[in-house]
């Protein structure tokens, strides 16, 4: 049986022109209208022995999935997010931290979805704590959410508008859940989005790659950590906006 020939994506050119191949990505860096959004880099989602990775036999993630996930986190994602955070800080760009945390100890304010999943990070709990390697510094903004999508469940859009943020670099976990939802929602709200593919991961390589394939050339520009840092170093002045930057399209 012959393998069918893949059908070309007829919408790819217009999406690439509108959301990927636009110099506005770099103009926003030059004018300091870009922020780094770090999604769920907390114990609940990213520490062995916590949340869905508890060692009490209740984890739905297989041993193979856990090994893959934490290997990716520890060897690739956490070092890359740490580098990106420091690069944004050096250039006086906003670093914003999003985490799952309820308003109440019993989680009665959680979304219906999180209640159905029995997912709770109470205020002050270990699950709500950020991983030390990528934790907030100084007065960096923290946004608490109780749903997969940060834009649908918080005032993040209002906060970003107040600060003049027009573009986002997105990193975090899980690629196929909270990260993908955030990227799609941000694009729909008018932000130019750059997803750092080696700054994200999930519990299987197939799920990670499926999200990358869906988002690429549609809702965001997808780059590596090295490419992201190179763009920031080229276009964003450390001391503040450079309104005279010479920016070319991709």
UniProtKB/TrEMBL annotation:
Record GO terms (molecular function): hydrolase activity
Gene3D superfamilies for the chain: Isochorismatase-like (3.40.50.850)
Keywords: Hydrolase
Organism superkingdom: Bacteria
Domain Isochorismatase-like: 34-227
A Pfam short name: Isochorismatase
Protein name: Cysteine hydrolase
Species in which this protein is naturally found: Synoicihabitans lomoniglobus
């Amino acid at each position: 049986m012959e393998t069918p020939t893949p059908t070309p994506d007829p919408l790819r050119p217009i999406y690439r022109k509108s959301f990927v191949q636009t110099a506005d990505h770099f103009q926003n860096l030059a004018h300091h209208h870009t922020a780094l959004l770090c999604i769920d880099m907390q114990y609940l989602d990213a520490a062995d022995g916590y949340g869905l990775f508890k060692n009490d036999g209740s984890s739905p993630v297989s041993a193979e999935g856990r090994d893959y996930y934490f290997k990716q986190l520890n060897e690739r994602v956490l070092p890359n997010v740490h580098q990106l955070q420091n690069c944004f800080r050096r250039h006086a760009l906003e670093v914003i931290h999003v985490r799952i945390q309820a308003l109440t100890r019993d989680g009665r304010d959680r979304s219906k979805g999180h209640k159905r999943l029995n997912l709770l990070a109470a205020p002050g709990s270990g699950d709500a704590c950020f991983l030390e390697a990528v934790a907030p510094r100084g007065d960096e903004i923290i946004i608490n959410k109780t749903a997969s999508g940060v834009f649908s469940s918080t005032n993040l859009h209002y906060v970003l508008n107040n600060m003049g943020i027009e573009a986002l670099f997105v990193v975090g976990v899980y690629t196929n859940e909270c990260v993908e939802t955030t990227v799609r929602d941000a694009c729909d709200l008018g932000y130019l989005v750059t997803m750092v593919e080696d700054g994200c991961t999930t519990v299987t390589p197939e799920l990670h790659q499926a999200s990358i394939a869906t988002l690429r050339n549609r809702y965001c520009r997808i780059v590596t950590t090295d490419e992201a840092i190179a763009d920031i170093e080229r276009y964003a002045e450390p001391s503040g906006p450079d309104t005279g930057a010479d920016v070319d399209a991709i």
